[in-house]
Design goal:
The protein has twelve helices and no strands. Helix 3 runs antiparallel to helix 4, helix 5 packs antiparallel against helix 6 and helix 9 runs antiparallel to helix 10.
Length: about 325
């Protein structure tokens, strides 16, 4: 019997983690806040350097050369982009471990083999899909243009169908590779083969999982941003605002923003909390699908379990280690 998984259980797994381990979600938000805070500090440093070099009169703005400032900002932001990718790997692996009910630690946050593997997988999948998408997309456009010259309607239909076929292929590949990340975190190795094998015959269920997850995330985003809009509007009506139009870059004193430091940190933490929660709603369903499929496959048939003893024993040993 073919292994299956519950789509509703997978989609609801993020809410289950939030209910049982809400403190872990706060910890993930703090990790995001540290990353964003570092980026904002770098941007503030670069901006302060630009303000110091501003010309004294408006007439000199036309000859103001900020190339040095731009180069400095690029040199500072490049490592921070790598830091962002690292944080995504750390939080993503922590979410997968939380769904798999693995070892606890500090909100399942660590940086070792699993986080590195998740980063590598994300890069490989993204680059691989781009390598496939670009030439096929060009071929679809060329096909449509070539047929358009003979008959515009035929060219339009052929180009649309070819483009749709490329999108369908990329979507199928993405779904087939969607379990590689959770499998690699669970087994502590690059588990492309195992993730691909588990997703075989599950494309429809995985597609439904992705669609429902996106719908849930959109609903949550709309609710959150509506609430934030109400809060901002209430603050505006209460007279809480920053007079940006009155700020003179040449006489601006950064100390004037000190009263906004605490509210700004609170706002940053709230935004990062929302980001951590949305990431949980997206990452958790795939980890839940992997857990259900691997469990069902291990118990479905002794023959099947025996034939895959190598990978199954590795998975079970890893899961046992994670549970400790």
């Amino acid at each position: 019997m073919r292994a299956t998984f519950s789509v509703t259980e997978a989609v609801g797994s993020g809410w289950s983690v939030l209910r049982r381990h809400s403190g872990a979600v706060v910890a993930w938000a703090v990790v995001y806040a540290l990353m964003v805070g570092g980026m904002l500090a770098v941007m503030a440093y670069g901006l302060s350097g630009m303000l110091e070099n501003l010309p004294e009169t408006p007439e000199d703005l036309g000859v103001f050369d900020n190339l040095e400032w731009q180069l400095r900002m690029q040199m500072l932001m490049s490592p921070l982009n790598g830091l962002g990718l690292l944080v995504e790997g750390i939080v993503g692996a922590a979410i997968i471990r939380a769904v798999l009910a693995g070892r606890r630690g500090f909100a399942w946050v660590s940086f070792w083999v699993q986080e590195f593997l998740l980063i590598v997988i994300q890069l490989v999948v993204a680059i691989g899909l781009c390598v496939i998408a670009i030439p096929l997309g060009i071929l679809a456009v060329l096909l449509g243009v070539a047929l358009w010259q003979a008959e515009p309607m035929i060219g339009l239909v052929a180009g649309t169908l070819a483009g749709g076929a490329v999108v369908a292929l990329l979507l199928w590949l993405g779904l087939r590779l969607s379990l590689v990340g959770p499998a690699s975190v669970a087994t502590r190795r690059l588990a492309f083969a195992e993730g691909w094998r588990l997703s075989q015959g599950q494309t429809g269920a995985l597609l439904m999982t992705g669609v429902l997850s996106v719908v849930v995330i959109l609903v949550v985003e709309i609710a959150v941003f509506a609430l934030l809009a109400v809060i901002v509007w209430a603050g505006y009506l209460a007279g809480i605002r920053i007079p940006f139009e009155e700020i003179d870059p040449q006489t601006f004193d950064p100390e004037a923003l000190r009263p906004l430091l605490v509210p700004g940190l609170i706002a940053l933490l709230v935004i990062c909390l929302i980001q951590a929660f949305l990431n949980l709603l997206w990452q958790a369903p795939w980890a839940s699908a992997y857990a259900q499929l691997s469990s069902a496959r291990a118990s479905s048939s002794p023959l099947e379990s025996g034939s895959d003893s190598g990978s199954s024993s590795a998975t079970n040993a890893s899961d046992t280690e994670l549970m400790q």
